[in-house]
Specification:
The complex is a heterodimer. By secondary structure, chain A is mostly helical. Chain A folds into three domains: 30 residues; 142 residues, Cytochrome Bc1 Complex, Chain D, domain 2 (Orthogonal Bundle); 91 residues, Cytochrome c-like domain (Cytochrome Bc1 Complex, Chain D, domain 2, Orthogonal Bundle), CATH 1.10.760. In chain A, helix 2 crosses helix 7 and helix 2 packs across helix 9. Chain A is elongated, with a radius of gyration of 24 Å. The N and C termini of chain A lie far apart (90 Å). Helices cover 74% and strands 2% of the residues of chain B. Chain B is mainly α. Chain B starts with 9 loop residues before the first helix and ends with a helix. Chain B has a domain of 178 residues: Cytochrome C Oxidase, Chain A (Up-down Bundle). A two-stranded antiparallel sheet of chain B has the order 1-2. The chains are: A mainly alpha, B mainly alpha.
């Protein structure tokens, strides 16, 4: 009969298609984004952050950057920036989701934890010319985002998305550029949920002195740590770019230990205490002070 | 003697022509973005940056080349299998016009940065509505032709066609639901993890409903036509058909392994992905067994080459796909270049090979003549095959290399390589990939020239037709 009745055939095909659809796509609406998924600390986007998110979409950043830290140890280590893997409740304000499918660039789910600098100096320099901070980067330059932000729809967006906002939030849009908005969005990513602090107690560590007095013994590892974590702001030769020059630094080793572990938020210096263990911080200090030894 | 049915094929020709044009644009943009990944200076801000061009590449490929040529082939096949002229030739012509306006507008709006960011559903809501209208107009035309058919039996190709008509409609409409802000901007109707789950239910089943059912319908129709032998088993085709459309819809979450999507959805997706090997290989074996006793045609008939190598890539694709859907393997290669390597084996190896073969066949029938040059067709075959293999194989190597570097940890649990070190390691492969694009493009040029000359040859010799 099916070979001869196209109407019955189409109905039957529809029913067959809807079985898997109902179970794996429609039914989960009951659980996903429900109260058990919600995380109290996760806040909706401000008007400026949402404008930044829309620019992220306009430029198709999602084609190269994912936004989910998988539950894999290496993912958490690489993209967690001291935080944990991505939780469903962190995304309830995301319309659409921007998880992506390819990492031609690094995951950005917790990028806000990596660069806490309120001025966003690193992001600005990087977006204007990626190769000025990451020499081998293949990211396009986005200097053209240095133009006034169009805020015509900002308030309407908040209403449509049902996000709370204050007149001060809207005032905050005044005089902002597209670059500012995108950086505001970058800085918010992944920062809502509390980070489990596991950093070295600084006072205890600085009470012990640097065990690596011989640079030769640790140079290779220390240099690679420096390149990975410090060079993009302090320069490949420690000459200073976004951050101050480190060459010939007069700071004491225990001061340096404190700065590296805890960061200096006001200056945009990230805290590395959750990323680097005590031994590594000491090795870095040995490397930084190599010409004062 | 009964008068032969007069088929209406002007829209078939129109859709073939335009799908080839859009397909060529997809390949050209593909080459450009492959070059940009190796030489970022080639990004021309703001319109020609990688982020804006990549959706143009995928949309021109899937909607312009893929769907455009499927519409052509479905108009052609449906008339012949039902022994009935197309229900409304006028509607078909209108559909072609709207189709071209829609694809052109898609390219322009995507370059302007107007997009929804959901993969393969990037077009903003007014265009998405137009795409849905095109599909519905086309579906009505095909379905009405089937309803009014003179041949009572419905051959397996018609099953695949009808399922695709229903499936694509459901998927496209649901994943495009949104809240419009203004004419050029909308927000998804779904949020966060829900949106991701809906997206990949769509994304993976677009592969089923757009890039599997239609080429299978085409394969099942043209292989027997080309070889003058019936398909090996109609029953096997039917069993494979029902299991295929049943199983596919469960598998979307294999794109979301290890993410916040509930674990059980991921596990179910993984299991069904493995099960899909059976119906997929049902179709592959049906093709192979049809060739029994006539394998020498692989040498003597250029069309058989396109069809059989095409179905072979389908077989490889449907082994590799389930492998990638397994959690442990996904942890390794997901987010790396392995995946574009996989996708391009499906699109360039399987779908396009079958479409090339079908287009040659239809062009000769419609022009009432032999193909202009078998030699050129063979050269086309080898160039696209080599181009695609270089593309896929280099990307698999790059994916494995980057995947293992990204996961490598030191004994204390810290990472062995920085992200940039993994990128620097794969840049050489990006350059090889760009070269493969040029090889593929050379094959495409021969194809276009050959098809053009074939139609010209047919038009020059109208007397032969009678």
């Amino acid at each position: 009969m099916l070979e001869k009745n196209p109407v019955i055939f189409i109905i039957l095909a529809f029913v067959v298609i809807m079985i898997g659809t109902t179970i794996t796509m429609i039914a989960p609406f009951k659980w996903i984004n429900s109260d058990s998924d919600k995380i109290a600390e996760v806040k909706p986007y401000t008007p400026l952050q949402q404008e930044g998110r829309d620019l992220y979409m306009r430029e198709g950043c999602n084609n190269c950057h994912s936004q989910t830290v998988r539950t894999l140890a290496a993912d958490v280590e690489r993209y967690g920036y001291g935080g944990t893997y991505s939780k469903s409740g962190e995304f309830i304000y995301d319309r659409p989701h921007l998880w992506g499918s390819r990492r031609t660039g690094p995951d950005l789910a917790r990028i806000g934890l990596k660069y806490p600098d309120p001025r966003g100096a690193w992001h600005r320099k990087h977006m204007e010319n990626p190769r000025s901070v990451v020499p081998a980067s293949n990211m396009p330059a986005y200097a053209f985002l240095n133009k006034p932000l169009d805020t015509t729809y900002s308030e309407r967006k908040m209403k449509l998305l049902k996000f709370p906002y204050t007149p001060a939030d809207l005032d905050d849009l005044n005089g902002k550029t597209e670059m500012d908005a995108l950086i505001a969005y970058m800085r918010k990513l992944g920062t809502d949920i509390p980070v489990k602090k596991s950093e070295v107690p600084v006072s205890a560590a600085t009470a012990r002195s640097n065990p690596f007095t011989d640079l030769k013994a640790v140079e290779e590892e220390a240099e690679s740590l420096y390149k990975q974590h410090c060079a993009s702001c302090h320069g490949g030769e420690r000459e200073g770019t976004l951050g101050p020059a480190l060459k010939g630094s007069a700071r004491s080793e225990s001061d340096l230990f404190k700065i590296i572990s805890q960061g200096v938020e006001a200056n945009g210096m990230p805290a590395f205490g959750t990323l680097l263990d005590e031994q590594k911080v000491w090795k870095l200090i040995t490397y930084i002070k190599l010409d004062t030894k | 003697m009964k008068a032969p049915t007069r088929y209406v094929d002007d829209s078939v020709k129109g859709f073939i022509t335009w799908s080839i044009i859009w397909g060529t644009i997809a390949v050209v943009v593909g080459i450009l973005i492959s070059l940009q990944l190796a030489w970022p200076q080639l990004n021309v801000a703001p319109y020609l940056t990688y982020g804006r061009l990549r959706p143009i590449h995928t949309n021109a490929g899937i909607f312009g080349w893929g769907i455009g040529s499927f519409i052509a082939m479905f108009f052609y096949i449906t008339q012949r299998l039902t022994k009935t002229p197309l229900w409304s030739p006028k509607l078909a012509r209108v559909t072609l016009w709207i189709f071209n306006v829609a694809i052109a507008s898609a390219a322009v709006t995507l370059a302007m940065g107007i997009n929804r960011t959901k993969e393969y559903a990037e077009l903003e809501w007014p265009l998405a509505i137009i795409v849905a209208i095109i599909w519905v107009l086309f579906s009505i035309n095909v379905f009405m032709t089937i309803l009014k058919r003179k041949e009572e039996q419905m051959y397996i190709s018609l099953w695949y066609i009808m399922a695709a008509l229903v499936g694509v409609t459901v998927l496209y409409v649901v994943n495009n639901l949104g809240m419009p802000l203004h004419l050029f901007k909308s927000y998804s109707a779904f949020a966060g993890t829900n949106d991701a789950n809906v997206q990949w239910w769509y994304g993976h089943n677009a592969v089923a409903m757009v890039l599997t059912l239609p080429p299978l319908a085409i394969f099942y129709y043209f292989l027997p036509k080309i070889t003058n032998n019936p398909i090996y088993s109609h029953r096997m085709g039917i069993i494979a058909f029902w299991s295929l459309i049943f199983m596919y819809l469960w598998t979307g979450a294999h794109h979301l392994l290890w993410t916040p999507v509930p674990d059980w959805i991921q596990t179910v997706a993984m299991a069904f992905s493995i099960m899909l090997i059976a119906p997929s290989w049902g179709a592959v074996m049906n093709g192979y067994l049809t060739m029994n006793g006539q394998w020498e045609k692989m040498k003597s008939n250029y069309l058989v080459k396109f069809m059989i190598v095409g179905i072979t890539f389908y077989g490889l694709q449907t082994l590799q796909g389930p492998m990638q859907a397994v959690r442990s393997f996904s942890a390794f290669i997901h987010y790396t270049d392995w995946v574009p390597g996989h996708v391009h084996m499906g699109t360039m190896g399987w779908v396009s090979m079958v479409l090339f073969g079908a287009t040659y066949y239809v062009s000769t029938t419609l022009s009432g003549t032999e193909v202009y040059s078998v030699k050129l067709a063979n050269a086309h075959f080898w160039l696209v095959l080599v181009g695609q293999l270089i593309y896929s194989i280099t990307m698999w190597i790059a994916g494995v290399q980057q995947g293992s570097m990204l996961l490598a940890t030191n004994s204390d649990g810290t990472l062995h390589y920085s992200f940039m070190e993994t990128m620097i390691a794969i840049f050489p492969y990006y350059k090889i990939r760009a070269v493969s694009g040029f090889i593929y493009f050379a094959g495409l040029v021969l194809f276009i020239y050959n098809i053009y000359k074939t139609f010209q040859k047919g038009a020059d010799a109208p007397a032969v037709k009678a």
